[in-house]
Design goal:
single chain; 168 residues; four-stranded antiparallel beta sheet
Length: 168
């Protein structure tokens, strides 16, 4: 079960919620990748920047979309945010893998449980020269250099509510 409750979404800091960079998503089963969701929306995957801007809205404007399974945010490199995606970081009973806890403690910034409930998303301020994505790696880091959407839940982990500057 994913956590896409509007109550949780209001935990997402306003600086992430307000810019018109959000889309809703609907879950579509993928037998080849059952734990990878959601799929990227066509207007973002293949669209031009102008088309993206037409379709993207502030989160609060799309919270009432009927049937939406969740909400995802386009990562805009001009904003200066770094999104860290920790996959396979929690067991089914909620225990956190030691390597993930080390990263969460080190960054001490906005941290939420992912939609799959088996990982975490961290958001901090900073810029990277490139994104860090290696197939099969449990850690992916995005700063907007590739066309990327991040599904956010607002299910904040241990009161990590503010986005901290972690450029260093």
């Amino acid at each position: 079960m994913t956590k896409n409750n509007a109550e949780f979404l209001h935990n997402i800091p306003a600086e992430l919620r307000t810019p018109p960079l959000w889309l809703h998503y609907y879950l579509k089963p993928d037998p080849k990748h059952p734990d990878k969701k959601p799929a990227k929306a066509p207007c973002v995957k293949w669209g031009t920047p102008e088309l993206r801007k037409e379709n993207l809205k502030p989160l609060d404007k799309i919270l009432d979309r009927p049937g939406a399974s969740g909400f995802q945010r386009w990562i805009d490199p001009a904003e200066g945010f770094i999104f860290i995606d920790l996959d396979r970081a929690r067991t089914a009973d909620g225990e956190i893998e030691p390597w993930a806890l080390t990263i969460i403690d080190k960054f001490d910034t906005y941290t939420e449980v992912s939609a799959s409930e088996s990982g975490f998303h961290l958001v901090c301020k900073g810029k990277l020269p490139e994104d860090f994505v290696i197939a099969g790696n449990n850690v992916e880091i995005y700063s907007g250099h590739i066309n990327k959407l991040m599904a956010l839940t607002g299910d904040v982990y241990e009161l990590h509510l503010t986005i901290e500057n972690r450029q260093e």
